[in-house]
Write a structure and sequence with these properties.
The structure is a single chain. Strand 3, helix 3 and strand 4 form a beta-alpha-beta unit. The chain is globular. The chain contains 9 helices and 8 strands. Strands 1-2-3-4-5-6-7-8 form an 8-stranded parallel β-sheet. By secondary structure, the protein is α/β, with parallel strands linked by helices. The longest helix has 18 residues. It comes from Candidatus Nitrosopumilus koreensis AR1. Keywords: Hydrolase, Lyase. GO terms for molecular function: carboxy-lyase activity; hydrolase activity. This is Amidohydrolase 2.
């Protein structure tokens, strides 16, 4: 089984010429089928426009699919308490599997007290909150807000909160490995380490960094499989993770078991 915990249906990269939401979902389903991916978590964006559907639009569009869940984006600038109330109901209904904070894209630290209501909601319902960490896809992102060390404060102040550090904090993977090692309530996905497909040099470099992270942080009970599709391709990601030095007894956890439990996927 394979669970991809990090995909988008915004008009990025492979979908940049696909304006219709239903067509984008069909493209996602085709990509999942071609790569034997059983379930995927779609992340809604930090803003809504013609290229970026809202959480509500995604919920409505995926009703006919039983292999898709949603991580709902929440921002201080673009979302309200009323939005959060709606999210709470969708969480109760099992439609939202996680929340997503876009640190770096939104210019606030993840420990800003205005996010606390999101963390409290996640704790109440036992769902994780995902954070963008590391390099930003947009040049308008501000990197100091996306440093993985920022999540140490959130993890310490909210020990019951389940945290997913997206993208391994790349390029600050060494900082990410310390946050993982120190905080047992922090997980990390391997998504978005490349735009498009891996080339040989970059794949080798990232593979070595991930191996160092695993060796430092110990048993990879915290590691989650994700791609960032359509920014990254699913086939190149499967080829990449097949080469990671993860012991066979831990590989199923990485590919689906950890995510299945964390996101409450039945």
């Amino acid at each position: 089984m394979i669970i991809d915990c990090h995909v988008h249906i915004n008009q990025y990269e492979l979908l940049q010429n696909v304006p219709n939401l239903e067509d984008r979902l069909n493209a996602l389903q085709t990509e999942m089928t071609n790569n034997n991916v059983d379930y995927a978590i779609i992340l809604s964006s930090y803003k809504v426009n013609s290229e970026r559907p809202s959480t509500k639009q995604i919920i409505d569009a995926i009703q006919k699919y039983d292999n898709l869940g949603i991580a709902a984006g929440f921002t201080i600038d673009n979302h309200t308490d009323d939005d959060l109330r709606k999210y709470r109901q969708w969480i109760k209904d099992g439609k939202i599997k996680a929340m997503k904070i876009y640190s770096g894209y939104e210019h606030y630290y993840p420990y800003d007290e205005r996010y606390q209501k999101v963390y409290d909601t996640c704790i109440e319902f036992g769902i994780p909150v995902m954070f963008h960490t590391g390099d930003t896809y947009s040049e308008k992102g501000k990197l100091r807000f996306a440093r993985p060390l920022n999540l140490d404060e959130v993890a310490v102040d909210n020990p019951e909160l389940k945290i997913v550090m997206c993208h391994l904090g790349n390029p600050w993977i060494q900082d990410a490995q310390e946050v993982l090692y120190k905080n047992k309530n922090v997980y990390a996905d391997v998504s978005g380490l490349v735009i498009g497909s891996f080339d040989h040099y970059f794949e080798k470099m990232i593979k070595e960094k991930v191996a160092e992270l695993i060796n430092y942080a110990g048993e990879p009970r915290y590691l989650l499989y994700g791609t960032d599709w359509p920014i990254s391709t699913m086939d190149s990601y499967l080829n990449f993770v097949a080469k990671l030095k993860i012991k066979s007894e831990f590989r199923d956890g990485f590919m689906y078991k950890h995510a299945k439990k964390l996101f409450k996927i039945s």
